[in-house]
Amino acid sequence: MSVLEVRDLSIRFGGLQALQDVSLEVNEFEVVGLIGPNGAGKTTAFNCITGFYKPDSGSVRYRGQDVTSAPPHVKARMGFGRTFQNVGMVKSATALENLKTAQHAKASYDVASGLLGVGRMWQGEREMTAKAEAILDLLGLAHIRDKRVGGQSYGTLKLLELGCALATDPDILLLDEPTSGMGPDESDELGERLLVLRREFGLTMLVIEHHVPLVLRVCDHVYVLNFGRLLAQGTPPEVQSHPEVIAAYLGGEAPDALAATEEPAQDAAAQAAPHQPEADAVPEAASLPKRRRARTAAGQRDEKGQSA
User: Fold this and answer.
1) From CA 25, how far away is CA 61, in angstroms rounded?
2) What is the domain partition of the chain in residue ranges?
3) Separation CA 289–CA 129 (nearest Å)
4) How far apart are CA 290 and CA 297, in angstroms?
5) CA distances from 116 to 109, 113, 291 (A)
6) Number of other residues whose CB lies within 10 A of the CB of residue 174
7) Sign of dihedral through CA atoms 207, 212, 214, 216?
């Protein structure tokens, strides 16, 4: 069953086409990756999906319901949990206080009870404290329970932000670079935690991530954005070996990636031909995708200038 379905999503900021006809789908209990070079439009897509931006065209459907125009707080109540590229928590509050604040939308008492301090409010506070402590234990953060968030490392803040998203009881988690600021060992540990969360809580996840080993290990399906357009999609191994994806990440300079995008006949001719000087070895511009022709021409000019 499809939990999240995005169709032909487009948005423009002035003269910049940030997204153009982007479509993706996240099914029940899947962990889906959204990757691409810096500036590809990944966070913009998240902002459109979660209601922070209103797309110019396209639709966002949650369990069959059109939620394209729903604001962020409505989507949060529906079951959207979100982390951000830049950590957004109350830095002067403790870890426990931040986790309790994240639960405010589903508190068991109303505003009047909170102001008056009646019995139901204290019961609700105890329940939220117990839930916050359970999340801290789950994420290995119990030692910072009563410490101010502002004094923690960036990697710890990213992990605590994940905890705040979990505190909202999400149906689908949208994680924007959750391993940012973490070392390799911490990233691997987070990957294991994500798999545990999916198994234990039945979560569905859409993850923006640059840590390729994590994507390969935890994602069921991967979408690749480049210049606001969908470049490729498939299983992690398929995407990892896709020549267009390799070229996009390496700036079109990877010989294997460029060779794989040429016509088979040209490949065969290139393999049979004797060694040529570097300037002659550049494929003809007509055989390259449009976005690479400028790079090829620039490279030829540079080589001629250097030889002169």
Assistant:
1) 10
2) 2-92+148-246, 262-307
3) 56
4) 12
5) 11, 5, 64
6) 24
7) positive
- Please count the other Cβ atoms lying within 10 Å of the Cβ belonging to residue 14: 6
Q: In angstroms, rounded to a whole number, what is the distance separating the alpha carbons of residues 223 and 24?
A: 7
Q: Is 192 helix (H, G, I), strand (E, B) or coil?
A: helix
**Residue of 74, 56, 17, 4 whose CA lies nearest to 228:** 17
Angle subtended at Cα 173 by Cα 65 and Cα 60, rounded to the nearest 5 degrees:
30
What pLDDT, on a 0 to 100 scale, did the predictor assign at position 272? 46
Q: Thinking of the domain 2-92+148-246, which architecture would CATH place it in?
A: 3-Layer(aba) Sandwich (3.40)
Cα Rg, the chain, nearest whole Å: 24
Nearest CA-CA partner of 75 in 3, 22, 125, 19: 3
Query: Alpha-carbon distance 224 to 176, whole Å?
Result: 15
User: DSSP letter string over 8-23?
Assistant: EEEEEETTEEEEEEEE
Q: What is the pLDDT of residue 122?
A: 66
Nearest to 102 by CA among 69, 135, 71: 135
Phi-psi region of 39 (alpha: psi -120 to 50; beta: other; left: phi over 0): left
Q: What is the pLDDT of residue 274?
A: 47
Which stretches within the chain are classed as H helix?
42-50, 72-78, 95-101, 111-116, 119-138, 154-166, 184-201, 212-218, 236-240, 243-249, 255-261, 264-272, 278-281, 290-307
How far is residue 161's CA from residue 190's CA, in Å, rounded to a whole number? 13
Query: What pLDDT is attached to residue 279?
Result: 39
Q: Would you state the structure tokens that stand for residue 17, as one six-digit string? A: 């086409």
Sign of dihedral through CA atoms 216, 220, 225, 230? positive
List alpha helices for 107-252, DSSP H. 111-116, 119-138, 154-166, 184-201, 212-218, 236-240, 243-249
Q: Residue 226's beta-bridge partner residues?
A: 229
Residues in the chain with pLDDT values less than 50: 253-255, 257-258, 260-308
